[in-house]
Amino acid sequence: MATTRGTWAYRDEFGDAFGRTYFRRFGPGVVSSVGLGTYLGDPTDTVDAEYERALVAGLEGGCNVVDTATNYRCGRSERVVGRALENADVDREAVVVATKGGFLPFDGERPDDPARYVRERFVENGPVDPADLVAGYHCIAPDAIEASLDRSLDALGVETVDCYYVHNPETQLRERSREAVYDQLEATFERLERRVAAGDIGRYGVATWQAFRVPPEDDAYLSLPAVVDRARAAAETVGREETGFEVVQLPFNVHMADAFSVAAHEFEGERRSALAVADALDLDVVTSASLGQGELVSGLPEAVDAELTGETPAQRAINFARSAPAVTCALVGSHDPAHVAENIAAGTFDPMGARAFDAVFE
Predict the structure, then answer these.
(1) What is the mean pLDDT of each run of 10 residues along the chain (362 residues)?
(2) pTM given for the model
(3) Which CATH number is 9's domain given?
(4) CA distance linking residue 35 with residue 341, whole number of Å
(5) How many structural domains is the chain composed of?
(6) Domain of 212, in residue numbers
(7) Less CB within 10 Å around the terminal CB: N or C of the chain?
(8) Residue 347: inside a domain
């Protein structure tokens, strides 16, 4: 697992090549503020090989955060991450490995009959109660998440996942009330608290797409303070003094800045944005879609672009995400080593200061 000594040693090895705030505190250790994502790409051997080369290049080039999920690329991404960890000339204790559970994964390729696959693999012969299944492929019930975690540990070939996310819990809102989703999250958080205590995961959180950045009247809304309260209750139930819920993942970029601009959450008597609440609660924020899934590599809005540093539009877009309050790491997905090098080099430039960042929204 990632350790304080391992991550700080990594920072000491690479830190002089980057800007002052490139490495940031994460728990007792430090992480690069640019992370490697593994979502995009076809589930093929060719893309596997590309990803492995890119991940090794990133790990050996100053990026010690790798993010994946049990369902990414039909389960292939986790396996590729495991191979990259084994083959990179980097200590395992220096790398923060994050994965997610919630969407039921395929095994290497998309089956001809996905519904039948899910029924036979996960419902009839697995941990999923059909009453907990939403949209035919999403389940965050305790047994399912615990089985997903075990599957991830095996696929990654690691003893500990440093950061484990419940994946897009707002998907459950398609068929359940908010209160029912909070209840199920609390029950699942109890399991995850026990796995933190057992050393199987370092910390946990939720990875969302809409939940925390949409207003309360939106059908996909979940309250970040309410979710944190449920995590604290789960920790108390299992006898832990502090919760292992320490991180949230959400999309953030120039075109998807709602996590900063939308005051969606009631907190301490006022409405605040997701990033403001995360900052107040001392939660780490990891941004997904930092390049708008590739859209921003061709350029940013002129007024914003002028305020950012970086040699390329991609670097400036990454530095926008790195500039937001409470953001610890901006994820960027790429299976091209040259693109990985370009993205990591964004960290050789300093992000925007708080006043300059705020001014973009005025």
Answers:
(1) 98 96 96 97 97 98 98 98 98 98 97 95 94 97 98 98 98 98 98 98 98 98 98 98 98 95 97 98 97 82 89 95 96 93 96 84 78
(2) 0.97
(3) 3.20.20.100
(4) 12
(5) 1
(6) 4-334
(7) C
(8) no
